Amino acid sequence: MSTLHSRRLGAYLLGACALASTLFTANLAHAFEPDRDVTVVVTSSAGGGSDTITRILTDTITKLKLTPSNFVVENRTGGSGAVGYSYTAKRKDDAYLWANIGVSFFTTPLLGESPVTYRDFTPLAAVSEDPYIMVVSKDSKIKSLADIKAAGKMVSGTTGIVADPALLAQRLETTMGIEADVVPFGGDGEVVAALLGGHIDVQFGNPSEVLPLIKSGDVRPIAVSAAERLPAFPDIPTIKESGYDVVLTQLRGFVMPMNAPEEAVAYWAEVIKKALESEQWKTQYLDRFNVVPKYMAGAELAAEMDKRNADYTALMTSLGLIK
Q1: Beta-bridge partner residues of 253
Q2: Is 97 exposed, middle or buried (0-12, 13-18, 19+ CB in 10 A)?
C-alpha cells in the first residue's frame, strides 16, 4: 500500500470515528426527554462568581427555550464547598441535579475536609475560564515582569492560601527564578487595601474584580494569565509572551452525580453548548465580565479535572499543607 493511500485511509478512518462519536452523542441526547425541573447546587453564597454564572446560564437556557425543564438554583454553602458537594454526591443516578465547579471542588478534599472528591462526580460541561490580571498600585515602581525579575522577589496577596493566585505566584517563582512570598487575607477587599497601602507588591485578580480599579487609575495592569491577550485589555501582555511559560485560569463549569444516566448527561451537555453559542450568553456574561469562553465535556473535561487536581496537589504539597 502506498504512503499516500495509507494517509488517505487513515484520514478517512479518523473522520469516520469522529462522525460516529458525534452521532452517538446526539443519539444519547435525543434518547433523553426531561420531564421535571433541574436543581443546580451552588456551593458558595448568592452574588459570588459561581452563583452569578449559574444564574446567567440557566436564565439563558430558559429564555432561549432550549429545554422544557425549569431550573432551581440552590445555594448550599458551608465547609468550603463540602456541604454542597456532599449533598450532590449522595444523589447518585440523579438525572436532574447539577453542581458548580469551583476551586474548592479540588482543594477542600485535598485538605481532608470533605468526604467526597472530584472523582465522585460525572463531568457535565465547562462553560468558561476566568483569567487573572496581575496588577500593581499606581505608585509602584514595577512597570513589567522584567522589573520583578530584576528585583529577584515579589510579595503577592491572596484570599486564602489555597487559591489560584497562590498557584500563580508559585509558578512565577519557579519559572522566573525569584522569591515569591504569598500573604493570605480574609477577602478580596483586604487584598486590594494591602496593595494600595504598599504592603504587597502585586495582586492577581479576576477581570470583574480589578476592572473598576484599573478604570479609576488606582492600579496598573502588567500582565494577564490567559494564553492570549484579552479583547477587553488588548494592551496588557500575557505572562507567556513576556517570556515565562505560565498560563492559569479559573475553570468554571458543572458536574452531575456519579452514575447519572449517560443519555441525560449528553442531553444537558448539548443544551449547555447551545446556550454558550448564543448572543445572549456573549453579551450577558462573556463581554460583561471579560472572561474567556471555554466549552468542554465528557472525556476532555475529565482530563482537565485530573490536570487541575494535580496542579492543586503540587501547590499544597509545596506549601506543606498536605504530604
Answers
A1: 101, 126
A2: buried
